[in-house]
Specification:
Strand content of chain A: under 5%
Number of strands of chain B: 0
Main location (chain B): membrane
Radius of gyration of chain A: 23 Å
CATH architecture of the domain at 89-295 in chain B: Orthogonal Bundle
Distance between the termini of chain B: 16 Å
Oligomer: heterodimer
CATH topology of chain A: MetI-like fold
Largest interface: A-B, 46 and 54 residues
CATH class of chain A: Mainly Alpha
Number of domains of chain A: 1
CATH superfamily of the domain at 89-295 in chain B: MetI-like
Structural class of chain A: mainly alpha
GO cellular component, one term (chain B): plasma membrane
Radius of gyration of chain B: 24 Å
Largest sheet of chain A: none
Keywords (chain B): Cell membrane, Membrane, Transmembrane, Transmembrane helix, Transport
Family (chain B): Belongs to the binding-protein-dependent transport system permease family.
Largest sheet of chain B: none
Shape of chain B: globular
CATH superfamily of chain A: MetI-like
Number of helices of chain B: 13
Order of helices and strands of chain B: HHHHHHHHHHHHH
Helix content of chain A: over 70%
CATH topology of the domain at 89-295 in chain B: MetI-like fold
Subcellular location (chain B): Cell membrane
CATH architecture of chain A: Orthogonal Bundle
Chain lengths: 301, 337
């Protein structure tokens, strides 16, 4: 293959821009995906500027331990405390606002780790194949034979309960989903002509895997990433709820729901609002992921 | 290949996955930092006490020996002693599993009974109001944390309205035969107990059903639409067969295979959600036993519960594959995947 002429190159560039434009257009046509994107941008904004948005940042442990104000404990939702206060008189809205940080960090950490392990495993198993490939996929199957929440619970136990260890536990059980996704895609493009051609001119295996095959897998990974952000947040909150995640008084959503459950039904607001936050966050990622799935036209489970 | 040998091969292929799973769980529980004996006895226990418990639990043997001992015991129904109940974990699981089984089975039944019709209605009215409403519902169903929905329903229907019991499984239990309250109360012809069991099931089962209901509706809708656009449907239409008949007699049957997969996959996931739901509703099942074991660092119980969950999951997937092979004979020749 000779070098590309500048004409060829600009043509390829134009094609790429053209297809990006088409994708952006199709994305804009779907109000639900736009709503999802808006929710996620809102969450990121809230997470970044939490100290300025929350009226009582010290109640969420900003710059020190969470404050206590027993005179104000279990205040009903009011103008001053729109989500009410908890057993230590802390403003629940401020705590929910800070909780955004924990959930987003958890999701990003878990998925970065899962993709970092799962993608290379899937690439190697799919492209190199052989005994190594079979072994890798069998290990993957084993991980996939238990619901992620249950396996994450089993992994979280020997580690001491903390937010960091919850993230590690979820990450350990998450990579196989990406390995299987990538494996399936690799097997389907392995024998395509462009891969064949690349092999023919003597490209190395690494180059073929990462430069020729990987780009074809990016769309489904992106879609799965978005859908999984929501799912990882749900599981993280579930671990918090069971007492295996962030420990009180950390304002993590699942942990707060678990704390508030003790005071039902009188203090109904305590568990209700952190749960609403989880719902909205997960909904945002699901809406976006679903929209991306339509735009890229890929099937991901 | 005949159907029988296909079924046999499918069942056999589940065995290595189960063995792999048992290794994974076992080694995770042993290899990760943290000493099960120390965790079980607490930080204040003396070193001698920890050592003697380690000896008793066989923790001083090489991990491989421990694993082989465990597996040898497993085949004789011995899963080690639970540190919280002081009974064999196998006995505990036999005792607690039926409650969870009853809960997730009723939950899945609700999910199918509502999800399939919802999906069909959405599919028949593609892009119209019914379809959009259904889509929104599906998004909500998969986005709400189940344990939060559980709390809200409990607040509303148990605490405020007082229509349904907030926690527990039954008022007075009938004599235990199967461990399934609905079945046992019928065997005892105790209809008050049956009603009570049913009333206790409504909230937790409905909570569990929500997410799979959404999933099933979505899958039914898309496979329904796909099937409806096939040539044979047009052929039926042009020969004057009413649309309703086509929908229910032909399309539904052929599009059901895809829905079946989702049902089985979700059945496995329901056990996962049960871990959270059983806590909220104080449901005396295996998941609650598992959570207690987790909080008490009861390692044998944790390994046992995880294994059973995995086994249910593996069997669910096996059943799907077999049904697939039954509905679509081509699958039987499709090799491994």
């Amino acid at each position: 293959m000779g070098t590309l002429t500048s004409e060829n190159r600009s043509e390829a560039m134009e094609n790429r821009i053209e297809s990006a434009k088409r994708i952006a257009y199709r994305f804009r046509q779907n109000p639900l995906s736009l709503a999802g994107l808006a929710i996620i941008l809102g969450l990121v904004f809230i997470a970044v500027f939490a100290p300025y948005i929350a009226r009582h940042p010290q109640d969420a442990g900003y710059m020190g331990e969470p404050a206590v104000d027993f005179a104000n404990r279990f205040a009903e939702p009011s103008w001053e405390h729109p989500f009410g206060t908890d057993q230590a008189g802390r403003d629940i809205l401020s705590r929910v606002i800070f909780g955004t940080r924990y959930s987003l960090v958890l999701g990003v950490f878990v998925l970065t780790f899962a993709i970092g392990i799962g993608v290379p495993v899937g690439l190697v198993a799919g492209y190199v194949g052989g005994a190594l490939g079979t072994l890798l996929m069998r290990i993957t199957d084993v991980f996939l034979s238990v619901p992620p929440l249950v396996l994450a619970l089993a992994v979280a136990v020997p580690l001491q309960p903390s937010l960091r260890n919850a993230m590690i536990a979820i990450a350990i059980v998450w990579w196989p989903w990406y390995a299987r996704l990538v494996y399936g895609e690799v097997v389907s493009v392995r024998e395509e002509q462009f891969v064949e051609a690349s092999r023919g001119i003597g490209a190395s295996r690494i180059r073929i895997m990462f430069r020729e095959i990987l780009p074809n897998v990016l769309a489904p990974i992106t879609v799965k990433f978005s859908l999984d952000m929501g799912y990882a947040i749900l599981i993280g909150a579930g671990l918090g709820f069971l007492g295996l995640g962030a420990q009180p008084p950390t304002p993590e959503w699942g942990t707060m729901i678990s704390e508030g459950r003790v005071y039902l039904p009188a203090q109904w607001w305590y568990s209700t609002f952190p749960g609403l936050a989880i719902f909205i966050a997960v909904l945002g990622f699901n809406l976006l992921g679903d929209g991306l799935r339509d735009v890229f036209d890929v099937e991901v489970k | 290949m005949g159907f029988k040998s296909y079924v046999l091969r499918r069942i056999l292929s589940g065995i290595p996955v189960f063995i792999g799973l048992s290794m994974l769980i076992f080694f995770l529980a042993r290899v990760l930092p943290g000493d099960p004996a120390r965790l079980a006895l607490g930080p204040r226990a003396s070193d001698e006490a920890v050592q003697s418990l380690r000896d008793q639990m066989g923790l001083n043997d090489p991990v491989v020996v421990q694993y082989l001992n465990y597996m040898a015991g497993l085949f004789q129904g011995d899963m080690g002693i639970s540190l919280t109940t002081n009974r064999n974990v196998a006995a505990d699981l036999v005792y607690f599993f039926p409650a969870t089984f009853e809960l997730i089975t009723v939950g899945m039944t609700i999910a199918v009974l509502f999800g399939v019709p919802l999906g069909i209605i959405a599919g028949q009215n593609k892009d119209r109001f019914e379809d959009n409403a259904g889509r929104l519902f599906a998004f909500f169903g998969v986005s709400m944390p189940a344990f939060w929905v559980a709390i809200l329903l409990q607040l509303l229907f148990a605490f405020y309205m007082g229509w349904l019991p907030a926690t527990g499984r039954i008022a007075t239990a009938p004599p235990r035969i199967t461990g399934l309250m609905l079945v046992d109360s019928l065997i005892a012809t105790d209809f008050a107990a049956f009603r009570s069991a049913l009333a206790h099931l409504v909230l937790p089962a409905f909570t569990l059903a929500l997410a799979p209901m959404a999933d099933i509706a979505r899958m039914t809708r898309s496979s329904f639409i796909e099937e409806f656009n096939k040539d044979y449907v047009h052929a039926l239409e042009t020969s004057g067969i009413p649309a309703k008949l086509i929908a229910y007699k032909y399309v539904l049957k052929s599009s059901f295979a895809a829905t079946l997969t989702i049902i089985a996959l979700d059945y496995g996931f329901l056990i996962g959600s049960a871990f959270l739901i059983e806590i909220v509703f104080a449901w005396p099942g295996m998941a609650r036993y598992g959570v207690t074991a987790i909080l008490e660092n009861d390692i044998n119980a944790i390994v046992g519960v995880t294994l059973v969950v995995g086994l249910v999951y593996i069997i669910a997937n096996m059943v799907v594959d077999i049904m697939y092979g039954y509905f679509d004979p081509r699958v039987r020749y499709g090799g491994d995947e």
